[in-house]
Specification:
By secondary structure, the protein is mostly helical. The chain is built from 10 helices and 2 strands, in the order H-H-H-H-E-H-H-H-E-H-H-H. The chain has a two-stranded antiparallel ribbon. It starts with a helix and ends in a 32-residue tail after the last helix.
């Protein structure tokens, strides 16, 4: 019986270690299928992850009030300001080069502007200065369109990219011809 206790303890520790290692694995990339085959949504941007401390996808009044100190956690080089890489993460790899005509045909557009970054980066210099970090609670409160004291993704997330309708020029996305505009009455 005395030999069973250490073996049971060793087995329990092994199982616990396996569980902890499995939880610490990186999450799959955006668009990567999960076990059920469905594509996963992209993770929130780095700045949203630090502002939304409880990770419930809502930046509460308390989180807005603590925005300055939360943003300072992103200042990895300790210079008192946040570079674009510090608040957004490393830039994505460059897309495959396409000829300009191919881009025009595919309807590709630059990514939509991010209201959260726009509010925090008041001077639009692509960095968040010490003054902007200090003013972060006021800047975030200005995004609260419905004045409920918190920010939901509808208030702080960039709009989804617009999709270009398919079909020949002048056709609606459903393929039906656009309705004619009534002619203005003529005076005789």
């Amino acid at each position: 019986a005395p030999m069973k206790t250490p073996l049971l303890l060793l087995g329990a520790l092994s199982a616990l270690t396996t569980c902890l290692l499995a939880q610490s694995q990186p999450t799959p990339d955006e668009g990567a299928p999960n076990a059920s085959g469905k594509k996963l949504p992209p993770p929130p941007p780095r700045v949203v992850r630090v502002l939304d401390a409880d990770h419930n996808r809502v930046i509460s009044a308390e989180e807005i009030a603590n925005a300055s100190s939360a943003l300072l956690t992103l200042d990895k080089d300790g210079d008192g300001l946040l570079s674009r890489e510090e608040f957004c993460g490393p830039p994505p790899p460059p897309p495959q080069q396409k000829r300009k005509s191919d881009q025009e045909k595919s309807g590709q557009r630059p990514p939509p502007k991010d209201p959260l970054i726009g509010a925090l980066d008041a001077d639009k210099d692509k960095s968040i200065s010490a003054t902007e970090i200090t003013n972060a609670p006021t800047a975030l409160a200005a995004l609260d369109k419905n004045a409920d004291g918190q920010l939901t993704p509808r208030e702080f997330a960039p709009p989804p990219p617009r999709r270009k309708p398919h079909g020949p020029k002048g056709d609606s996305p459903t393929g039906a011809a656009p309705s004619p505009t009534p002619a203005a009455p003529t005076a005789e």
